[in-house]
Amino acid sequence: MTARPLLRPAARAPISDALLGPLLIAPAVLILCAVIVYPLLATAWLSLFAIDTRTMEGGWVGLANFAAMLGPDGRFFGALGVTLVWTAGTLTLQLALGIGIALLLHQPLWFRSLARGLALFPYLVSTVVAVLVWRWLFNDFFGLFNRALIGLDVISRPVDWLGQMPNAMASTIVVGAWKFFPFVVIAVLARLQTIPDSLYEAARLDGAGAWGRFRDVTLPQLADVLGIVILLRAIWDFKEFDLIFLLTGGGPVDATRTLPLVVYQEAFGLNRMGLASAHALGMMVVMTVMFVAYRLLTKART
Amino acid sequence: MTVEPILSGGTRGQTRRAVLAGGLAAAAALPLAGCGEAPRPITLRWWSPQAAPEQVRAYRAQIRAFEKKHPNIGVEFEPTSDEGYPAQFAAAFAAGQVPNIVTHLPSFAAQGYYAKGLLAPMDAVADAVGIARFLPGINDVYRAPDGSLAAIGIGGTAVDMLWVRSDLMAEAGIETIPRTWDALRDACRRMQRGAVYGAPLPYGNNSMTSLVFVSFIHRAGGQVFTPSLELALDSEPTYHALDFYRSMRELCPPGASSFGWADSLNAFVSGGTATGIYGGRVLANVARQNPRIAETLRCAAYPTMDATIPAWTFNDFPSLFIPKRASHPAETRAFAAFLYDPEGYVRQLLAAPGHVLPVLRGVAESDAYRSNPLTVSFASEIETMTAAAARGHNLGWESPAHRPNLKAGEIIASNAIAELVQRVVAGEPAKAAVGRAASAIERIMRG
Questions:
Q1: CATH code at position A217
Q2: Which chain A residue is nearest to residue B411, measuring alpha carbons?
Q3: Mean pLDDT estimate for chain B
Q4: Model confidence over B382-406: pLDDT tens digits?
Q5: What ipTM was predicted for this assembly?
Q6: Class for the domain spanning B161-314+415-446
Q7: Do A248 and B258 touch (CB under 8 A)?
Q8: What is the pLDDT of residues B286-327, one digit of tens each?
Q9: What is the pTM of this model?
Q10: Chain A residue nearest residue B89, CA to CA
Q11: Same fold, B32-157+315-390 and B161-314+415-446
């Protein structure tokens, strides 16, 4: 009797390796096409029409929506300026608060776990609830801020926190920073816990003070994580909608009307889906340019 | 015109697919039979921006009564809002996910949607309710250019009445309710003291500011559009209205620059302002939230620039309409007509006494309506509001001579008029601000 070979020569595979790879990733590609590519192409297509949102009917206008958007009566550049001010302002404050509190929570404090949990609280609260609470704090009849300032004789008349500039933008930036700084805390705190103590010991031996250790040890170690945090938070802040919409509605006039609010108003207030799509595409182009530039800059530095 | 039957009683015309669907629904319901109420085969969705808790309770009572009569139909109430409905409806129409029935939206919203072919004519429902039961002329504002009714009235509201407190007037030595702008400004100045401001006029970037300011243009003797719908914004009355509105800013709370409907109402009800500008909801809110000022409440039509100009009151003409693509049209029409059943209708009105005013004959005089403590205590105020609402207009129908403005909803949603107010209050020259607003409105009218 002939013994059967332990391993038979492989049967001819019905699918070649060259085909197997694409087949395996096909489901993922199809899903990405459905949720990213299709909406993107649909938006680009819609931007070439004058379409009424309610009926989704309208005619071909070519690039007229882009001309209107970028022309003298267009709102794109004004809203882009507002969006950049909001993004830069709130992101800076989020980073300052986030890094500061992460450093604090990295110290051996009493109730450190509780404090770490509480620091995450704003991030867990829904935006609607957070905005309602803040609007109440800003209220001129019952708001804590005005009451406290009047009680301390700092002001004699309530301050209009949300209805005039620059207060409206400043208030929005502060509320945004309060809401989103915990993301920075989580990321920075996680990185802080992995910095070897030996680096600080060596710095101490070299005579570095607290500021020196922060500047020469902590910050360089945080650089990578901060790069990712800045990138992600800048993207999210740039397209932030609900917080600003609920807090100021874009006012006074257009002073806090960021690009997402313009898209929303064009699409659902003025029923101009084509023009809204053009704004959305413009927004995407700006974000892409900004973030390619950012990545090139950070790559060049490293 | 042939009137379709409101609700077919038989099962003629049922397809095998419908029978199969019914069977499947019944089979699906079986496991739930022991767990409470079985799901109903037909569900109707009802949207309304008038959704204070008492009103929702009244709606649910109407729903229960209807469901009792029609065990196969369930109705779900979903609140929307005065500020948010344009976006919600645009999304709903675009997605084809429309509610079956919509109540309390302004007449100009109904006219605008109907003009786009999004609503079903309401003549059959009006006939089912009984056209003669409506107050004379109440449905004229919903008459579309094709002769059909784009909607029917479910109430009337005198939205921007002047509310005053007799105690504060007496303290300030003011004997009569102001009739002109000069008198109002003087009264507000004299009543403003400490933490109490003169008035809660809205200066926010929102629909209230737009709608209220349109009234001020009329109170200066002007109009936004001519009867043939030519834009007439750049006119002397508009500038007078802007001057007055700007001059009142120092007599309003600092936060008025972001006031909407709720903020303005709360400012007066809480005692934060000496006067108010709102509809009859003030009555229920004061009774519940600040009853100590209830006895001092008085209301009148909002003052005009001078006594020779007649009062102009904003009535949004709360409507009832049915989207054309709504499912179960016969059942929806039956429910729409049922909402005017006297018992439920009166209860619905009394959920906000004096705010949504009756549109059916005999209701205001009925014992059921008059037995409410607020309609008894404030009979005179409700009478004043009823008279003002009967003469009321809005941007969609500025006067009896005006054609319906089918773009009024979009003009309001654009905030072009609110921005005009904000720009002028912020110090921009009125001429330039009016020019910007006029351009924006003209673009909408052309679009």
A1: 1.10.3720.10
A2: A270
A3: 90
A4: 999 999 998 999 999 999 899 899 9
A5: 0.80
A6: alpha beta
A7: yes
A8: 999 999 999 999 999 999 999 999 999 999 999 999 999 999
A9: 0.83
A10: A54
A11: yes
